[in-house]
């Protein structure tokens, strides 16, 4: 069997506060897949991502990225990963262009290549006019674009998007969807966490539900709906979080009767 | 350049870029402060003070001021840079890169080291215009200043990593570092102090650092130069080892 883009086995994470964020998560994402991770706030999505990228240290279990152990061979594993985190974590001292340039430098990209790649991504994410501005002066949407461009700078084989469309306007959301589909076609594996069910449904090849630190369902949108005995992914998600009464199909049915 | 060299150069460039972008605060202000010390203690008060150990008072004071400038700036730069990046979350960009703990630690350390170097060289240049400042033992002076700079860079990193709020950094600088520096003999000779203060001064590690730098400039030291150099080297190496352990374990850097 060829190496998975991301293979997680029995991953557990207990924070020093005693909170058990992950309780034996196992997951396999194949190369070239667009994989969605859905779950309520505090389910363990960001912790799983942080363990994968080295921002959190697993308590137990194993993570490998394209066959490289994320702990023992962290350099090779991290080289393959690009992370667009949920919270804007931009360096206030840097300009937009410097943000991209420095990030690529951390990943060892030579100067000429950095400059060309930055120009390309600034254009793609409509940031060219802002290239010399300090990051703290950017609007929320612009910061989101920059975070995505930064994650793409070193041409990662696995791109992790942690709620990339949270709080962005419709225009940017659609732009991002197009971009995500384009880079997927180019062969990039994508792990997407989102709260927007339609986003996961439209973009993802496979989806996993995570709740209370455990993977509680995995498959295509149709498979998950079938597993929960409902008609669509949204209802499956509502069943997961115990809020079936919010089901739109159910409300419509009740209104009609 | 290899991938690792590019990575390290970028990490280091980020730290230097940070303080150069706010150079009025990071270079200008400490330079003015040191210049004011030289003016007040050297030109104003110094003219009324006899020579100390056969050395003009202003010349006696300047080596300590240069050492103080390097140490405080190296410390302040690294502690605040790391804490700011932790607050912003921006440090995640470096931490999720393939950079090793050694690369990260050295890059953060060298940021403050460079700021201290710039301020000290400018202070030396300005002081040389005002007084005839000798450099008697350059082979002691340069290693001593480099060790002092690296020691306080490491101390800044340690406090920056441990700190959870800006108050923690301010506390370390205002209530620990500055009193130790001021009471370490920058402005006076320990032999002038009554007991038990003279003896107590010998328990202050900064006293030895000041004497090393003073020996490098004017050829006078109140303590053994060789022993002081040895102790400073050992202390710097120990601090580096502690920091490397923190970076390797991810203490207060990785969740």
Task: Describe this structure in a few short sentences.
The complex is a heterodimer of chains A (257) and B (255). With 257 residues, chain A is α/β, with parallel strands linked by helices. Chain A has 2 domains: 6-80 and 160-219, 3-Layer(aba) Sandwich (Rossmann fold); 90-155, no CATH class.
Structural overview:
The complex is a heterodimer of chains A (257) and B (255). Chain A is α/β, with parallel strands linked by helices. Chain A contains 10 helices and 10 strands. Chain B is mainly alpha-helical and 255 residues long. Chain B has one domain (3-249). Helices cover 76% and strands 0% of the residues of chain B. Chain B is globular. The chains are: A alpha/beta (257), B mainly alpha (255). The interface between A and B is medium-sized, with 35 and 32 residues.
Q: What general form of chain B does the structure show?
A: globular
> What count of domains describes the coordinates of chain A?
2
Largest sheet of chain A: 6 strands, mixed
Oligomer classification: heterodimer
Keywords:
A: about 260 residues, alpha/beta, Rossmann fold, 2 domains, 10 strands, globular, B: about 260 residues
Compile the SSE list and pairings.
The complex is a heterodimer of chains A (257) and B (255).
Chain A: E1 6-14, E2 20-29, E3 34-38, H1 45-53, E4 60-65, E5 68-69, H2 74-79, E6 81-84, H3 96-106, H4 111-124, H5 140-152, E7 158-162, H6 170-185, E8 189-193, H7 197-203, E9 206-211, E10 214-219, H8 221-227, H9 233-240, H10 248-256
Chain B: H1 3-21, H2 23-44, H3 57-88, H4 91-95, H5 101-130, H6 138-162, H7 166-182, H8 197-201, H9 205-218, H10 225-249
Helix pairs in contact in B: 1-5, 2-3, 2-5, 3-5, 3-6, 3-7, 3-9, 5-6, 5-10, 6-9, 6-10, 9-10
